[in-house]
Amino acid sequence: RGIYLCGHSAGAHLAAMALSTDWTEYGVVPDIKGAVLVSGVYDLEPLLHTYVNDALDMSREVAQRNSPMLRVTPPAPAAAACEVLVAVAQHDSPEFRRQSQEYGQALRAAGWSVSMLDLAGVDHFDIIEKLSEDNYVLTQVGEELPSSP
Q1: Does the annotation count 132 as an active-site position?
Q2: Catalytic residue among 8, 39, 67, 92
Q3: What pTM does this model have?
């Protein structure tokens, strides 16, 4: 029972935005039990002056509005038991590593239950590609999540 969010890179950004959303504004209260955020982008402002923004054409206001780092609030009562894992690759860029560390700390400071995982020997791509391996730590995390009755 409940929802488990998982995302990598931009997918981790989307999952983090789901955690930051005030769902009562939409008349729903999702039962989010946990989130696994892998090598995510949690602050979009550093992208404004990079080639990535050539296609996105984000303004500063849009970047701020869509940055989970700037939207961290205490968990809603329904999310009080939500467990969040923020994982980052050893060989991710310094910016991915910084954002993962700071986002995890911000969640924890706001009262979320957060675990941090720094995965040795992997980069931004193989951190997620290794999910096909049974003995890989992220695969095992997924197997430890409670299953539906």
Answers
A1: no
A2: 92
A3: 0.90
